[in-house]
Design brief:
Layout: E1 4-13, E2 16-26, E3 31-35, H1 42-50, E4 57-62, E5 65-66, E6 76-79, H2 91-101, H3 106-119, H4 135-147, E7 153-157, H5 165-180, E8 184-188, H6 192-198, E9 201-206, E10 209-214, H7 216-224, E11 228-234, E12 245-247, E13 252-257, H8 260-273, E14 278-284, H9 288-296
Parallel strand pairs: 3-8, 3-9, 6-7, 7-8
Antiparallel strand pairs: 1-2, 1-4, 4-5, 9-10, 11-13, 11-14, 12-13
Helix pairs in contact: 2-3, 2-4, 4-5, 7-9
Length: about 300
């Protein structure tokens, strides 16, 4: 049974086609990244899964059951990008409130609240108002409030935005523990390095359509094949510029390499002929960021 399946999702807002037939599956125990530029449709898709938007057509299933506005989402946990906490309440009081929102009685909530305070590292601060918490502490508590009812599918919208590296690492440790307990996670993020290093698979959508899906290695291979990028640190830039070498700084150029044994010596020879001294060399594999830009374009979107 697939924890989450979205089939042929369509949604239009007036003249804007937000979703134009997106389909995806979140597998058991998987950490799936949903990526796309601004306006691609990912927010609309997440809202549709969480029940905040009704699709014009298409189908959403959670744990094999149809999900609509009235039912089927008991197994779903949602962690919004905006910190949705009550600043005047304590950490314990916030957890108690969200436990009730998610259908737990006061008696049923006692054990999950105790677990959440330990899980987030906030047990010692349980009775302090949230307004005194740092950004990282609020983020951790925000996640805990969304998963107190032990959901099998968790939607995470930019869960590490605005936090320091230590807090980010702690959040991902928490998410790893969630997966170990059997949860399947769907992450939306603009932090491509995080998606590349943390997620099992990636789905990229643009203009309301899915444009790519797979592991990072599969996406790189599909977009770039065997292509690599050679980065040369020079004592000065060649003048005139050498065709096939692109300057990216005052003394750094890059060139495409498909066969390292053939292409690299040729590029080095051309640099020596131009009178340049090579002070450093690095051959890089294409990254998820490169795949993303190739598929969605480089123009700025607001």
């Amino acid at each position: 049974m697939v924890p989450l399946a979205v089939s042929d999702a369509h949604k239009r807002f007036d003249e804007v086609q937000a979703l134009a037939g997106v389909s995806l599956e979140l597998h058991q125990g998987e950490f799936l990244a949903l990526l796309g530029p601004n306006g691609a449709g990912k927010t609309t898709l997440v809202r549709a899964v969480s029940g905040r938007v009704r699709l014009d057509s298409g189908h959403i299933e959670l744990l094999g059951k149809s999900a609509d506005r009235s039912n089927g989402r008991e197994a779903l946990g949602v962690v919004p990008q905006e910190v949705a906490l009550y600043p005047l309440l304590t950490a314990r009081e916030n957890l108690a409130a969200f436990a009730r929102f998610n259908g737990l009685s006061a008696a049923e909530a006692r054990r999950p609240i105790a677990w959440a305070l330990e899980w987030t590292g906030l047990a010692a601060r349980a009775n302090e108002p949230v307004k005194r918490f740092s950004g990282g502490m609020r983020r951790r508590l925000n996640i805990a409030c969304g998963v107190l009812h032990a959901p099998k599918v968790v939607l995470l919208d930019e869960p590490t935005v605005g936090v320091d590296p230590q807090s980010r690492e702690r959040i991902y440790e928490m998410l790893t523990e969630l997966r170990s307990s059997g949860a399947s996670l769907l992450l939306t993020t603009h932090q491509l390095e995080e998606a590349e290093g943390r997620c099992d698979r990636v789905v990229i959508i643009d203009h309301g359509r899915k444009v790519a899906e797979g592991t990072v290695a599969e996406l790189v291979a599909d977009s770039f094949g065997s292509e690599r990028t050679a980065v040369f640190a020079l004592d000065h830039l060649p003048k005139p510029p050498i065709p096939g070498l692109e300057p990216i700084g005052s003394a750094i150029v890059t060139g495409g390499v498909r066969d390292v044994e053939v292409d690299l010596p040729e590029l080095l020879s051309r640099l020596r002929q131009a009178g340049c001294q090579v002070n450093g060399l690095e051959v890089k594999r294409p990254s998820l960021a490169g795949v993303f830009l190739r598929l969605t374009g480089k123009e700025l979107r607001e």
